[in-house]
Amino acid sequence: MTVTRATAPPPETAARPGRGTVVALLAACHPLPAAAVTLFTAVLAVAVGRGAAGCAVSAGAVALGQLSVGWCNDRADLRRDRITGRPDKPLAAGTVAPATVSVAAIAALALCVPLSLASGWLAGTVHLCAVAAAWAYNLWLKSTPASWLPYALAFGLLPAFVTLGLPGRPWPPLWLGVAAALLGAGAHFANVLPDIAGDLATGVTGLPQRLGVRRSAALAALLVLGSAAALVVGPAGPTTASGWGLLALTATVLLATGRGRGRVPFLGTLAVAAADVTLLLARGAGTA
Question: Which InterPro entries does the UniProt record give (predicted)?
């Protein structure tokens, strides 16, 4: 795959203020994964019995955190996205100004702090650690062999953020944190698959880029399958029929999407995550 240098507008004329700025900002925040993570949080909050207010507060905090992370990511990748020619990226396409995205990222991060702490100081601190891990990925760890670690840490902490907001501040069961961490790490490998060639051309050498497409795709599938397995066999008692069905569905989806091109493997990961949260909701408060 040959990477060509795109002709990008100069920074001072790249953006057109007032023309679809809100739409461009929404496109720059990585809306699909941001919505998926926020929905996962809301479903988990319902499952553990946070109540309407608790669900709204926890989902809102995560939504703001995701917005800040997405905007930070696109702002940090602006130079690389222009080099590789990414018309799907509003910043690289010149439909929104870099300063606008920077301000939006910082504002979302600032609003995320009090909303996270509204669930309690311990729960809020846990969530802010997850957001800090994601920012560390954008600004530093993305180009290191530890690129998977922020994903595993941030996803693994999400269940704790939700359950620590309950009376008595209980920690979630270990199997739930492990399942979330494995899903996050798998999502990292699946998400970067279509960008590996361009990443290498612009100096991004995280673990997936070092392993290559084939090995990263296989590892992504194994991690996501491990996440589903932890979710199914982790809870006490015999494995239910719905649990075995989830494992079978996971394996089928991964086989069907693992060799796909573009964003297909990542969409397969999102489909598995949707099945996971459905099972969590069906189990209800037993997850806490």
Answer: UbiA_prenyltransferase (IPR000537), UbiA_sf (IPR044878)
